[in-house]
Amino acid sequence: MTDQHTRFSDIAFEFFIRPERMGEYLLVPLEVPENVESLALAYDYPTHSHPTQSLAEGTFTARVRENTIDLGLVAPDGRQVGASGADKREIFISATQATPGYGATDLVPGTWHILAGAYRVAPEGVLVRYQARFTYKQPRWLLGDAHTHTIGSDGKLTAQELAEHARANGLDWLVITDHNQFIREGALPRLPGLTVIPGVEWTHYQGHANFLGLEKPYDAPFFTNSFEETRARFQSTWERGATIVINHPYDEGCPFLYDLDALPFHLLEVWNGPMRPSNLRAIGLWNELLKAGRHVPAIGGSDYHNDRLAQILAGPCVNVLADSDSQADILAALRRGRSYMVFQPESARLEMRSGTAQLGDSTPWSPDSRLDIKLEGLLPGDVLKLITAEGTRELFTSPATGAFEGSFKVEKPGFARVELWQSFGGMLPLLPALVSNPIWFE
Ligand SMILES: [Zn+2]
Ligand SMILES: [Zn+2]
Predict the structure, then answer these.
(1) Is the dihedral of CA 142, 144, 146, 151 positive or negative?
(2) What are 409-419's pLDDT values in tens digits?
(3) How far is ligand 1, taken at its centre, from the CA of residue 248, in Å?
(4) What's the rounded Cα separation, in Å, for the pair 208 and 257?
(5) Separation of 252 CA from ligand 1 center, angstroms?
(6) Which residues surround ligand 2, an ion (CB under 5 A)?
C-alpha cells in the first residue's frame, strides 16, 4: 500500500539466510518512495530452538541460541546511517530525530540498504522478517526565528540556552546567525521539537547578509575589499547552496550599501527586531521590487542578542508552511515565500489562498481570480490591508477581538499580499503586526 493520501504506508518482506552465509554482512535493498518524512523499521527472526528431552523424571526443554542477526542501515549514497548489532528490534529515522545509534537524516527517495549481519545462523538457515512504515510529509505551519546571535558573537546566551529559550517561547525552528562566525552541525543544540539551522551573518562595513543552511558557506576569511570580491563571495555561496538573505537594508547603524541588483540573493529581511521606521522603509523597498516584477520573498528575524526592552526572541516570528520540520524543507519553504511574519509567536494567524495557490505560489490571473483570506486572533482596531501593484486598500477594521474571513476580487495580474496594522493596545500609532508574502498572479 503506497497511497500518499493516507499519512503512511506499510511494507513487509522476508529475507532467508542460508547457513553458509554465516559470518557475512549482507545487504537487503529497501526502496524509499518520494516524499517520505520518517521510517520506522522493525525486524524479527527465531533466535532459539527448544529441543525437548524425555527423562525418567519427566521432560526437559532446552533453550539453545541458534541465530543472531545484526541490524544496520545504509543510505543511497553509501553512508552508514547507523548500526545496532542485535540489540534493537525497531529503529526510527527522520531528518530531525533518530533512535540512538542512528543519525537523523533526510529520507531521500532511492535504494537504501538494510544491513543483515549474519553473526550466527542455524544449520537449517534463518528467515528474517522485516516491516517498514513510511510516514509521508504533510505541509504544516512552523513558527521560527531566522536571525539570532549567541556568545559565538555578541549575544549573551550559549547556543543551547538560546535553543531552550526558543522552545520555551513555542518556536519550532531557529537559525543561529552569529557575526562572521560559523556554527558546525555537530555544535547545533538538539532539542525535541526544535529544528536548529546553521547560519552566519556575513557582517561587513558595507552591509549585513545572512547565509542560511550550511555549516561552511565559504572558505576564505569573511572580509572583502572590493565590490567584485563581494559579488564573487555571494555567487560562490549561492552555488554552494546557502539561502542568502539581505539583512536590515535601512538599519540605523548598519544599512546595506551595495546595489541589490548586482548581487544574487533569495530573500529580503524587511522586518528586523521591533517594528520601526527602518523596517517600514525596508517594506517600501520590497514593495518596489515586487512592483517591478521581481519574485523576491520577504523574511523577518528578531536579531536577538538578549532579552531587553522591546527586543525579544521571535519578535518578529516567521510562520512558514513547510512540508516537514527538516532544515531542507523549512529553508525551501522560506525561499518560496510560503510564510508570513508576525510581531510575536502568539499573534494573529493567517491563511490566504487563491484557488489552490498558497502564499508564495504563482497562479494564472483571470478576471475571476479571487483572494480568500482568513485571519484569527484579531484585536479591536486591527486594520487589514491588501497590497497590490496598484496600491494599498483597507479591507476591514476589526470592531472587537475575533476572527475574519473574506473573499476579494483580484483586479489585475501582478501580486497580492496582506498586512495587519495594530495600535498595540492603543499605546502606539498603527504599525504592521503581520506582513504576508504575496501570491503572484501571472
Ligand atoms: Zn546585522
Ligand atoms: Zn544580527
Answers:
(1) negative
(2) 999 999 999 99
(3) 7
(4) 9
(5) 11
(6) 201, 303
The Å distance, Cα 205 to ligand 1 centre, comes to: 10
Of 216, 211, 215, 268, the residue nearest 243 (C-alpha): 211
Regions in the chain scoring below 50 on pLDDT: 1-4
Whole-angstrom distance, CA of residue 29 vs CA of residue 271: 48
* 275-314 pLDDT tens trace: 999 999 999 999 999 999 999 999 999 999 998 877 899 9
Q: How far is the CA of 281 from the centre of ligand 1 (A)?
A: 16
What is the Å distance from ligand 1's center to 47 Cα? 60
Which protein residues have their CB within 5 A of the ion that is ligand 1?
208, 247
If you search the block for the grid coordinates 483586479, which residue do you land on?
411
Q: Are the C-beta atoms of 18 and 125 separated by less than 8 Å? A: yes
- For the chain, first and last CA: distance in Å? 38
Fold observed for domain 348-442: Immunoglobulin-like (2.60.40)
Q: How far is the CA of 267 from the centre of ligand 1 (A)?
A: 15
pLDDT in tens, 92-104: 999 999 999 999 9
- For the domain made up of 8-136, the CATH class stated in words is mainly beta
Residue of 287, 352, 347, 286 lying closest to 317 (CA atoms): 347
Query: How many angstroms separate the alpha carbon of residue 203 from the centre of ligand 1?
Result: 7
- What are the extents of the domains in the chain? 8-136, 139-346, 348-442
Going from the Cα of 413 to the center of ligand 2, the distance in angstroms, rounded, reads 36
- Ligand sitting nearest the alpha carbon of 176: 2
CATH 3.40.50.300 fits 139-346, yes or no: no
Q: Which three cell numbers stand for residue 94?
A: 527522520
